[in-house]
Amino acid sequence: MDRAVLNSMPDAERMLVAETDREAMAELDEDELLELHQRIRRARTKYVKNYRRAASASVAQRGGRGKSFPTNQRDRDRAEVFEEALARVSRRLGVVAGESAKALKAERLATARAGSAGPETAAARAASAPRGRARTTRKTTGGVKKDASTRSQGARRQAKRDAR
């Protein structure tokens, strides 16, 4: 990172970049890292937008992109500083998110092993079944109507092909 560019930044932005040091990010949790990531991205976008606007405006004045390139160095350098800071935060966020996912997976596996939320046993179903009159199921067509409808659609399609 270019120290001259960093020293030329306003104090608030310099402090924002300082928050991306390894030691400073070590004590942040996932939500705080996400919030820092968002603030860094906003600052980077600001300087990228300023650079692009000024560069596009100076192309017409200077007569080409190559000639107007050196005139807007400050915004380009600041955007690069924030790009590096964003990369540091993204890497740390990936590590913390991975650790969080592993912890969540271990917690879910432990919960599943302790007491399964799966199908009930026959004894538990019998104990929870209502006493008295036994339930009877309604008689259905068992898919006969659906099967007949599917066969007739197929027959119609085949007849349409044969008519060609």
Automatic annotation (TrEMBL):
<protein>
    <submittedName>
        <fullName>Uncharacterized protein</fullName>
    </submittedName>
</protein>
<feature type="region of interest" description="Disordered">
    <location>
        <begin position="111"/>
        <end position="164"/>
    </location>
</feature>
<feature type="region of interest" description="Disordered">
    <location>
        <begin position="54"/>
        <end position="78"/>
    </location>
</feature>
<feature type="compositionally biased region" description="Low complexity">
    <location>
        <begin position="112"/>
        <end position="131"/>
    </location>
</feature>
